[in-house]
Amino acid sequence: MLPVGDINVIVVTDVHSWVSGHSPIHEPSLDADYGSVLSFYEHVRDSIGGDGNLFFVMNGDFMDGTGLTTNPPDFLLPILEHMPWSAVNIGNHELYANSTVQSIRKPGGFSDWWGGRYLTSNVVLASSDDPIGSRYTVMHGGDGQTKVLTFGFLYDMADAVATVTVQRVEDAVKSKWFRSALKEEYDAILVLAHMDHQDPLVQVILKAIRSAIGHTVPVQFITGHTHIRAYDNATDACSTSFEAGRYLDTVGFVSMSGKNSSCKFKHAFIDGNVEALRSAANVDKLDTDNGQALTDLIKETQGRLGLLDIVGCSPQTFSYVYDLNATDSFWRLYLDEIVPNSTIFSLGNATHKKILFQDTGAFRYDLFNGTVTMNDVDILSPFDDTFYQLSSGIPGHVIQSAYERISEEMKFMMNVEQPIPSAAMSPPRRPAANDTYDLYAGKFGIENVVKILSDELGFDVRPMELGNDLSTNSLIIDYMKENWACPSLVDDNHDTPKPSIPHHMPHVDVSGVAKIISNGLSTPVWIGLGVLYFAVVAGFLLFRSRKRVGRERFASENSQAELEPVSDAVFA
To answer: pLDDT-based confidence at 427, cuts 50/70/90?
Structure first.
């Protein structure tokens, strides 16, 4: 049973568009999707009753993680808008593309959808200093009396798009609006904070709250960003900090007593698993009508985008965090096999040796043994970086020196030890000092690479983009199609794979085409089919050109979460 209290909150955070949950083939223990979570919420709401105090919140980072992330997020937002959230916080991954910000901010957009419940306490438009959403909201309980003041803060992010400004949390809590919000009386305060559960900024916010209202009102922090399960006292006896995983591997639940009480807090981590959610809700069947409808919408959207199309079959599981020399390291596969045999290294002068720099934040999840879909590729590589040619004829010792400087700077920024370097080089691991190379780099971090390389060479390097059709994901897909054909996709009479549906190609019903062709076609019909074919292909190429972007890929976000071992749920 859930640890229900006076005030109760269901939490999802850092889902990164994993609204369909995890693969039922590769990770069947994490089979819940957003439809399952919606069903869970409805059951808990009914169990607590209409006069109970149940709230449902999302703590940011809905972008960048699966093929449902597009820029702008036209396919993802309609799915999110089916969730009955009481409050929604902004995450850093919503601030890396102007098209995403515009989708949130425009009249009738994502922010307006929530009617004042989309919170951006310290995120404003650079042109006006107006918040993208609301600074705060007051959630009212089902009993008609309980009031919960709710903020939505983002850590002191420094690399958002130029159209927005992330105000320092330290400055925001000194603002007139913040002090004014705390003048009224509330039964509790909920702080959605897209930052680590022990981030010093949690203390900054708590101290500012306590200086205004004293120490008797419960303060519950809902944190995130670091992709872990965590729970801790926020400092004093009447506040706690709670973080609920990533990628829909966890549904969180927290409860607390109201003000003028003994400040009791309880929490639960529930696996993103249908059976775990059913058990926690204490019902015989999880799916509700609304939940099933949302599940159907998610699957239909994936189908329209071609995300379920099969690319190939992986011979084994590859980890994105294993040492570069490990046989099951995807980075080893990428650097030693995929890149050297790719289109990139066939460009330019064929006699020139070539090297690629790429930030190791490019990959965010493992690739599993067996069938690989387009969505699996997007999950592995959600940012799909394009490539640039930096210069040609660069001495190996210059490249090595630049590489070491780039790696050291990234390591300092991440401030964490990890088994793979912060930047990767392909091939070789170390260039021959006196040989010369043509140098390429992925889009992420290109500005820093160009700056360091220009300093090493003594002149300004002018990078040239190779084009949108040449990207990290296109290299991976081409390699898989060439080398990892599934048995079911191989023709019985030949060793070559059968043609597969292109990435994101709309599905077309061709059941009647064979009969029409067998009966013969007139010239006008052939012309019509030709025009239709080129229109479909042109539309596909235009659609595929949309790029997913992501800037901050620090190890705190990119590391595999250490989750508490659970069977159904962890209650405390």
So the answer is: confident
